[in-house]
Amino acid sequence: MSPLTIVLIVILVLLIAACIALYIFGKRAEKKQAEQQEQMDAVAQTISMLVIDKKKMKLKEAGLPATVVENTPKYLRRTKVPIVKAKVGPKIMTLMCENKVFDVIPVKKEIKAVVSGLYITGIKSVRGGSIEAPQKKKKGLFRR
Questions:
Q1: pLDDT one-digit tens code per residue, 63-89
Q2: What residues form the membrane-spanning segments (predicted)?
Q3: Which of 28, 38, 115, 117 has its CB surrounded by the most CB atoms within 10 Å?
Q4: 96: which strand partners?
Q5: What SS3 string covers the chain?
Q6: Using 50, 70 and 90 to split pLDDT, how confident is the model at 37?
């Protein structure tokens, strides 16, 4: 056999091994995510809140409790996350939320939201109106 065919066979074997490893890790991550989603659904509660402000900012700048910042992986601490400041009862709280919920949350309005710990997972209703879907932005030439 020529050296070229040996090199190609070795590369092919390595690619197959990498695909199998990614498949196994993906299945494990999927199971872990399903368990975490069940836990979040079990703890979720509906809360009425007045949304003061919403921004995408880094975890360190958001003013979240120190335990939240410590428990996040180091590579995620620098990423921007959707943060909502809301008045829940007499307290002003800083909450995180999902990206699809972040787009729908109205500012300076009272909403009923599904909250699991410090994480907003959904919106039930908006006082004095309905939940409006965000307007879709036009895709640019390079975004298509």
A1: 888 888 888 888 888 889 999 999 998
A2: 6-25
A3: 115
A4: 83, 119
A5: CCHHHHHHHHHHHHHHHHHHHHHHHHHHHHHHHHHHHHHHHHHCEEEEEEEEEEEEEEHHHHCCCHHHHHHCCHHHCCCEEEEEEEEECCEEEEEEECHHHHHHCCCCCEEEEEEECCEEEEEEEECCECCCCCCCCCCCCCCC
A6: confident
Do 85 and 52 touch, CB atoms closer than 8 A? yes
Tokens, residue 22: 């990614």
* pLDDT per position as a tens digit, 86-118: 999 899 999 999 888 898 888 888 999 999 888
Residue 71's contacts (CB-CB under 8 Å, 6 or more residues apart) are none
Q: Which residue type does 9 have?
A: I
How far from chain centre, in Å, is Cα 25? 20
